[in-house]
Amino acid sequence: MSEQLLIPETVRQLRRLWKPHKERLCDGNGEHPTVIRFHRACSWLQRVEQNAECPDLDVDLLSLWIAFNALYGQWDEQRGEPRPDRECWRQFTERILRLDEFGVLAGSLTEHRRLVLSLLEDEYLSRYFWQEPGAASAGKARKLKHAAHGWYQEKRWLMILERVLDCVYFLRCQLVHGASTHGGTLNRTSLKRCVWMMQKLLPAFLMVWIEYGADEDWGPLCYPPIGATVGR
Q1: How far apart are CA 41 and CA 71, in angstroms?
Q2: Beta-strand (E) ranges in the chain?
Q3: Which residue in 153, 160, 179, 222 has the most C-beta neighbors within 10 A?
Q4: What is the pLDDT of residue 186?
């Protein structure tokens, strides 16, 4: 990864790097959808940053996914509603990797390889395990870790990224759909791993967005501000 594209550690640093693009895109044309996406993502990422001294892991994971959703979300103009999550974030990850000329995301996935593998072998984050919980299903889920070693050797970054996000999304759905207790004790290890992973991925996504995504068309924005400046 190029030294010029080191991933910023704070939202303030990300916003500072984004500011020239923001000013250019919004010059005399009102709020630009790409600027709104970036602003929304940073607002939720900052929520987690402000909570660092006294983290609430359940809220942190939801905030991090909302930040991600702000980047990938797409509006279905025919149906008048957001398009399905998986479809949208998988298209987003494929595109952001294609734009990532300096390998920012590949570098992050490599640097945090142990965390990636710990997520992939976590049976509680696998739909296969929950279809029929037991030792056999747990073993099937853990096979992902062994497969991932090969993916790293082959530099299959899209495969790795999609599988990691599948794990995080699985736990995100448990929380959103009332299948988890706030502050509960049974899923803390899985939850910590998911939070840590998203804390690594979101700044990397935003860094690629800053360097290569400012002039991209990221598709119809979900629920754009109506009669208001950015901040909604």
Answers
A1: 7
A2: 75-76, 81-82
A3: 160
A4: 87
Q: Check if the beta carbon of residue 8 is closer than 8 Å to that of residue 17.
A: yes
Predicted TM-score (pTM) of this structure: 0.92
Segments making up each domain of the chain, as ranges: 9-213
Find all residues with CB under 8 Å of 131, minimum gap 6, and list them. 137
Tell me: the pLDDT tens digits for 136-153? Answer: 666 776 777 889 999 999
- Cβ pair 83, 75 in contact under 8 A: yes
| pLDDT score, position 228 | 53
Query: How many whole angstroms separate alpha carbon 231 and alpha carbon 128?
Result: 41
Cα separation, 75 vs 79, in Å, equals 9
| Closest C-alpha to 218, from 89, 29, 78 | 89
Are 64 and 44 in contact by the 8 Å Cβ rule? The answer is yes
List the structure tokens of 48.
């987690």
The better pLDDT of the pair 108, 26 is held by: 108
